[in-house]
Amino acid sequence: MEHAAAATAAEATSVSPDDVCVLLPTYNEAETIGEVIAGYRREGFENVLVIDGGSEDGTRKIASEHGARVLIQSGSGKGQAIREAVDAIEVDYVLMADGDGTYRPEDAVQMLDPLAEGYEHVIGDRFADMQEGAMTGLNRIGNRIINRTFAFIHGQDYQDILSGYRAFTRESFDRLTLTADGFGIETQMAIECVKHEVSTAVVPITYRPRPDGSNTNLHPLRDGGIIFLELYRRAKTNNPLFYFGSVGTVSTFVGFAVASYVGYEWFIRVPRVSHEVLAIVAAAAVLFGVQLLMFGVLADMILSFHREQIDRLEKLEGDGRSD
Ligand SMILES: Nc1nc2c(ncn2[C@@H]2O[C@H](COP(=O)(O)OP(=O)(O)O)[C@@H](O)[C@H]2O)c(=O)[nH]1
Ligand SMILES: [Mg+2]
């Protein structure tokens, strides 16, 4: 990761706004979208793409009046919108934000600078400067737990994986396997950046409250559940030891617990009681658990060999280019 950044650092120090498309997904953001677009244009970003999810409040009209290119997404959800929009972008760099005015256009340059240094993906850390009322207490705690879980399972601390302020190269975006239709998209981006070793930078940004009268489309419980499921499911390729090991450990423990009960009833209790069926269940749970654990260790080993191979291949490719 780091060497890629160093290699290009000398070539450029900032990204030209002409090479950037500002991407704003919207769903009923009439109240704010005009000012958001105007803000980015003031910062020198002329190329603004609004991908709309069928707003009924005039969002699209206001967006085009403010000089944005407006597309209507063919499916539904923020994730599907982002995927479809990036396909329609032709410039090299994408700056993604919300249409609700919670991210500041003034932070755009800071978001893009790491791309000029050779990073491929940038995450804006909302916790660096979170204004009063920008996030409910429940969401703040949920975000913390999700970020800790992510760092534990996937081995990289990106501080704020659910942030909607992102900058990335179109090329690196194409390397990510993204399938989420809804708010799981940010989680998938973070997981896939680890998996495909997309060099990722985290920069501090300001997070503002939504203006009065506009509503978030996020459902904390439903979307939180989707995110946790995503973190676990994709552990298979980033951390197989955790993926198989967690279930293996639980199964082994349950097996031992049942076995202790069976043993107690047979050896200690008077008169002794025999539990044949439970004994079989206990043995099966322990065997299953230990097998899963071994599977996890093997998969983990295969993964590290695979990563080593990829590193060597990339190094060879790099050497080939410089000749
Ligand atoms: N195109 C599109 N945009 C959406 C959809 N759902 C949400 N958005 C937009 O995605 C951005 C983030 O959503 P928001 O409700 O602010 O979520 P939060 O920032 O996590 O509270 C906003 O600009 C929304 O208007 C959707 O289904 N389609
Ligand atoms: Mg928002």
Automatic annotation (TrEMBL):
Stretches assigned to the Glycosyltransferase 2-like domain: 21-176
A single MF term (Gene Ontology): glycosyltransferase activity
Keywords per UniProt: Glycosyltransferase, Membrane, Transferase, Transmembrane, Transmembrane helix
Entry's transmembrane regions: 241-262, 277-303
InterPro entries: GCTrfase_AglJ (IPR026456), Glyco_trans_2-like (IPR001173), Glycosyltransferase_2 (IPR050256), Nucleotide-diphossugar_trans (IPR029044)
Name of the protein: Dolichol-phosphate mannosyltransferase
Organism: Halogranum gelatinilyticum
